[in-house]
Design a protein that fits this description.
51% strand, mainly beta, 14 strands, two-stranded antiparallel ribbon
Length: 290
């Protein structure tokens, strides 16, 4: 959608570089550093905005996300694997209310992840994994907030494929603690149980009662009725089973349940907002290598 004075500009461009190095040694230290630049075209003239109420020129209103990060992995002792990653985001976020207000806000977002995995030397080869992930949030998504935009932009994130919470929400404004135990009960069969608890980095704000939010900032369209001032997103339990039928064929089964927290619970302000129900999934898969 463009306008007579401002032509359509909705392209998305991505540039990036990732450099990795294996330092070797007895601890098997490996590291990588990356930088990615994403530019989303955005018309200052769309949705009834006019030249008089547009705060930036048509040549300078694109949504820009610059992500800089580094990651390292290490095996400090036998059977123990640890990893850590930190990343920062800069750039600018384009806001428009579709009427009279529009502005660019500077991005200042932050994310990090820490992982520890230990393989026990015992029957069934159990492996315990703990992962903590943090994505910064923003208290005010309003067009006229007039301060830096601090919510993490997940860009094209898909590292948690198969998780219900990753399908329901984009990876932003949240903390996740994930605990997983995997075993090999018999040859070619692997079984794991995973538990995750999630809470908001910044409680959602509104005038009173509940509000409708879309899980921004990555233009997700799923809207949820939420309670303001709450931070408990919910919990998830997953059971994953895989069977290596041959060297080239693997069968898999992934089942899970997500139990929403008080961010989505019934509110007591006289309005009739129903309690959110649990979400379930069952995924069967077949992988064939050629």
């Amino acid at each position: 959608l463009g306008s007579a004075s401002v032509p359509e500009n909705d392209d998305v461009d991505l540039w990036g570089v990732n450099v990795a190095y294996n330092w070797g040694g007895s601890k098997n230290l490996q590291s990588e550093t990356y930088a990615f630049w994403r530019e989303n075209g955005s018309d200052a003239g769309v949705e009834s905005l006019t030249a008089s109420n547009t705060v930036v020129s048509a040549e300078n209103n694109s949504d820009r996300t610059i992500t800089l990060g580094t990651r390292a992995t290490l095996e400090p002792i036998e059977r123990l694997f640890v990893a850590g990653e930190v990343a920062w985001q800069m750039g600018r976020k384009w806001f428009s209310d579709g009427a009279t207000n529009a502005e660019l806000r500077d991005r200042e977002a932050f994310a990090f992840q820490a992982l520890g995995q230990y393989a026990l030397n015992m029957k069934y080869d159990p492996i315990a994994t703990v992962v903590f992930s943090h994505y910064s949030g923003d208290k005010d998504y309003a067009v006229t907030a007039k301060q830096s935009y601090t919510a993490w932009d997940p860009m094209f994130e898909d590292q948690a494929g198969g998780k219900l919470y990753n399908a329901l929400f984009s990876a932003t404004n949240s903390n996740t603690l994930d605990v997983k135990v995997g075993v090999t009960p018999m040859e070619d069969v692997k079984l794991s149980v995973e538990y995750a608890v999630l809470w908001l980095d910044e409680a959602l704000a509104s005038q009173t009662g509940a509000s409708q939010v879309s899980w921004t900032p990555n233009d997700y369209t799923s809207a949820y009725t939420v309670n303001v001032g709450k931070t408990d997103l919910g919990q998830e339990v997953d059971l994953v089973l895989s069977y290596d039928y041959t060297e080239d064929v693997q069968f898999g089964l992934n089942t899970g349940v997500f139990m929403p927290g008080n961010v989505f619970s019934t509110i007591s302000n006289g309005s009739d907002f129903p309690t959110q129900e649990n979400a379930y999934q069952v995924i069967g898969s077949v992988k064939v290598a050629f």
